[in-house]
Amino acid sequence: MIVREIYAKSILSESKVSDYTVNPYIGCEHGCTYCYARFIKRFTGHSEPWGEFIDVKINAPTLLQREISKKKMGEVWMSGLCDPYQPIEDKYKLTRSCLEILLKRKWPVSIQTKSTLITRDISLLQQSRNIEVIITITTGDEEIRRIFEPKAPPIEDRIRTLEKLHQAGIKTCVMQLITC
Ligand code: SF4
Fold first, then answer.
1. How many Å lie between the centroid of ligand 1 and the Cα of residue 36?
2. Does residue 32 have its Cβ closer than 6 Å to ligand 1?
3. At what angle do helices 94-104 and 60-68 cross, to 10 degrees?
4. What residues pair up with 12 in beta bridges, in sequence order?
5. Contact 85, 51 (CB under 8 A)
6. What is the per-residue pLDDT across 55-99, written as a single tens digit (0 to 9) for each?
7. Dihedrals φ, ψ of 175, to 5°?
8. Beta strand pairing status for 53-57 and 25-26?
């Protein structure tokens, strides 16, 4: 895995899916074969295959702090072009830092992930009634999952994650489409 720390120019982007999207990372360790976000690779200069590089926007929280004051409140989708809780988030905590800013300002947030790492932030997510967590489960068959989502967590782990979030009183739903 090639990891590069970069300084982004902006972070709170307008979106057609939600009002805004925040992507703390470019690239995604899960490396799903169907990932629509792989088009972004051609703007990065990376030659590695999708799933084998990540650009870490180390200034994402600083940018968000600045940009949130200038924009009209709206729902933020995390993340659109990467899984905000892919494994590297355990080290950099950029998704967590961005969420802290959004929640402090009471912005509504929709988080989409396949990752169990989101349970690390349960106590943070509990601080807002305006948060929804979407867990993607595209198949119940582990063999199929291994073909299409080779480095994403197993289905059972995702179901357990949903259960933990639900038990913690966090609004959850399941995305069954082939998406992030
Ligand atoms: S988890 Fe989402 S963003 Fe990451 S590779 Fe899979 S489809 Fe793409």
1. 8
2. yes
3. 20
4. 22
5. no
6. 999 999 999 999 999 999 999 999 989 999 999 999 999 999 999
7. -100, 120
8. antiparallel
Residue whose tokens read 């084998």 = 52
pTM, two decimals, is: 0.94
- What residues contact 40, with CB distance under 8 A and at least 6 apart? 26, 27, 81
- Between β-strands 109-113 and 131-136, what pairing exists: parallel, antiparallel or unpaired? parallel
Pair 121, 161: CB distance under 8 Å = no
User: CA-CA distances (angstroms) from residue 27 to 32, 38, 172?
Assistant: 11, 8, 25
Q: What does DSSP say about strands 76-78 and 109-113: parallel, antiparallel, or unpaired?
A: parallel
Residue 50 pairs in a beta bridge with: none
The top-level CATH class assigned to 2-175 is alpha beta
Q: Which of 32, 54, 112, 117 has most ligand 1 atoms within 8 Å of its beta carbon, as the pocket-test mutant? A: 32
Identify residue 159 by its one-letter amino acid code: I
Pocket-testing residue among 36, 83, 175, ligand 1, by greatest number of atoms within 8 A of Cβ: 83
70 CA distance to ligand 1 middle (Å): 30
